[in-house]
Amino acid sequence: MTKHAKTRGKRPLVLGYVESVSGKVFSEFPKQFGILAGKQHGVYALYKRSKLYYVGLATNLRGRVKQHLQDKHAGKWDTFSLYLVREAAHVKEMESLVLRIAQPRGNAVRGRFRHAENLKRRLHAIIRKAQGEQLANLLGPASPQPRAKARMPRRVKSRASARGRAGLGPPPLAKFIAGRIKLQRTYKGRTLRAVVIRDGRIRVNGRLYNSPSSAGFGAIRRSVDGWHFWKFRDEHGDWVALDTLRRRRK
Fold first, then answer.
1. Confidence of residue 228 (pLDDT cuts 50, 70, 90)
2. CA 25 – CA 158 distance, rounded (Å)
3. Which of 39, 67, 102 is the endpoint of a domain?
4. Is 150 contained in some domain?
5. CA distance linking residue 96 with residue 57, whole number of Å
6. pLDDT tens, 51-60?
7. Are 65 and 39 within 8 A, CB to CB?
8. Would 140 be classed as within a structural domain?
9. Which of 157, 175, 202, 225 is most deeply buried (CB count within 10 A of its CB)?
10. Cα(45)–Cα(22) distance, rounded to whole angstroms?
11. By the 8 A CB rule, do 43 and 83 touch?
12. DSSP tag of 119
C-alpha cells in the first residue's frame, strides 16, 4: 500500500493557505482576495520585513486581517499569511501552539491549552526515578535511615500540654492560700473571672485547672504566665498580680 493510499481517507485539517502576501492586496485587489478567502475561519500571521510580528485567529479571515491595517497594529506589518482550517474547534489550539513556539512580540498574551496536561511534573518524576536507579547501580543500595519521631500536630500538642499542666503534681497555689480567692483579668475588653478553691486548684468556666498558667490557657486559649496574668484583691482592696503571693513567701 502506498503512502498516498494510506492517507487518502483522512480529512486534512488545513484546507488551504497563502503565505507572504503584501498587505497592499486589500487596497489594490480587495474583490479578488475576497473571492479567495471568503469568510472562512483559520489562523493568520503578520510579518514585518519577514519577521513574525503577530499571530491571530478569526472566523472571518479577510475582515480581520483588513482590520489590522487600521487598528493599533497598523504600520507594524507589511506582509501576511493565511491558513484555512476545516475544524473551527481546533483553530484556538492552533493559535496557542504557534504563540507558545514563536512568541510574537505583537501578542500580549501567551497561548493556552485548556485540556492538555503539562508533562513537566511527570518528566521530573521520571528523571528522579532514573537518577535513583543510576545511583543504586553506582553505589549500591542506600543504608536504611533511622526512623524520625512522628511530630505531634501543634494543636494536639498544645492541648496535651494544657492537660498536663492542669492535672499533674500538686496545685502550686495550695501552699500560698488559706481559703477561696477570687481572680480577675481584663482581656480584649472583657472581664475574665476565676476562683481558687481550698485545695489550690482554679475554676474557670466550670472547669478546674491545676496551675495559674493552665487556667489562663483555658480562659483565652493562649499560653500565658498565669502568675502575672491573673489578679486578686489584696488586703487593701487593690487588684494585684497573683505573683504577689509567691513574693511574700520569699
1. very high
2. 78
3. 102
4. no
5. 10
6. 999 888 777 7
7. no
8. no
9. 202
10. 12
11. yes
12. T
